[in-house]
Amino acid sequence: TQLLEQSPQFLSIQEGENLTVYCNSSSVFSSLQWYRQEPGEGPVLLVTVVTGGEVKKLKRLTFQFGDARKDSSLHITAAQPGDTGLYLCAGADTDKLIFGTGTRLQVFP
Amino acid sequence: ETGVTQTPRHLVMGMTNKKSLKCEQHLGHNAMYWYKQSAKKPLELMFVYSLEERVENNSVPSRFSPECPNSSHLFLHLHTLQPEDSALYLCASSQGGVRDPGELFFGEGSRLTVL
Predict the structure, then answer these.
(1) In which residue ranges of chain B is pLDDT below 50?
(2) N- to C-terminal Cα distance for chain A?
């Protein structure tokens, strides 16, 4: 059974701090997506990475896909309270998306 | 109007009740999904409907029954549920089909509590 492990599971930080969230698997994925889910909402796509070693930036968020396409990281610079939410990675398998275990981020003012 | 709409947002039911969750997508997408989101567990795919086929997770109990009358509407019929079925049920749609979904667009979810 494919599994995407995310770490840390919970993260509570002050506004202005930097953080990195990891998404790891023993399986190779053709692409990997990152979603953010805010309380009371459904997940919303942030980015899709496709090529091994690919780096994508979305304002203060930097996403990286591992060279072997088995893992990914999300780095947030100068976190803000609006970044609070559940961050989910999802790997594309041959016929479905496999979601990770999630990282719940709380950013305090 | 939001892209994917789910009703009801909250549902409390007894173990002997029969209820249904409804999902409607206004995006013209080709595939619709039901996911279950439980505490401390990854999002679990329950069912997928697309123009080409229906795919289901074989581990989903038969007390959950999907219905997809057309490409814009998806239902999840619930009967004789168990307390462990309490969870957030998320509907999603995608432009891509089952084999290559691409981005998923989620609804806000239906929070189900089974007493």
Answers:
(1) none
(2) 40
